[in-house]
Amino acid sequence: MSSISATMFMTLDGVVQGLGRPDEDTRGGFVHGGWGARYNDDVLAAEMGKGMARPGDMLFGRRTWQDFVTVWAGATDGNPFTAHMNAARKYVVSRTLLDADAWQNSVLLRDIEAVSRLGGDLSVIGSASLVRSLHAAGLVDRYTLVNHPLTLGSGARLFEGPAPLTEFSLTGSVTTTKGVIVAHYTRVSPGGR
């Protein structure tokens, strides 16, 4: 069985939708896209770099994988994240994708059951719907929650709908120069496993 770590960028009111760009995710009439960009700094980049430096494969939901394909696949910009993203094995969970050929080293999985049969360390960045499903199945071992100091009042939230009672222990935290708190949590109660 694999060990799954999820990194989620969120607002104080739990919104995880549309962090990067105004057009990133406008579902439900969401108009606050791009809310995270003004909070980037060297501290946050270093913290995210530590996560990228850990060995293991990546796990994506369909929407995030397709969005990342447009940004990372084939990019040669010298950004260290680019090299990592393109070299890593990427599992994408989707019932609707026909194939995962658009991005090198990508493997298509059809459901959460297929994820539960994987081995090794897996990391999820974004992919809120997938993270909700993984959490409900008791498969998330660690969270890195990147809490931004703002509220939006609307948008998709990390936990919408039922989720099993699961306890986590704070294993570390860093505050950036812009007030973002990067909190690392490890599961201490089963939560469904």
Automatic annotation (TrEMBL):
Database matches in InterPro entries: DHFR-like_dom_sf (IPR024072), RibDG_C (IPR002734)
UniProt source species: Lentzea indica
Span of the signal peptide: none
Ranges for domain Bacterial bifunctional deaminase-reductase C-terminal: 4-181
Coiled coil: none
Protein name: Deaminase
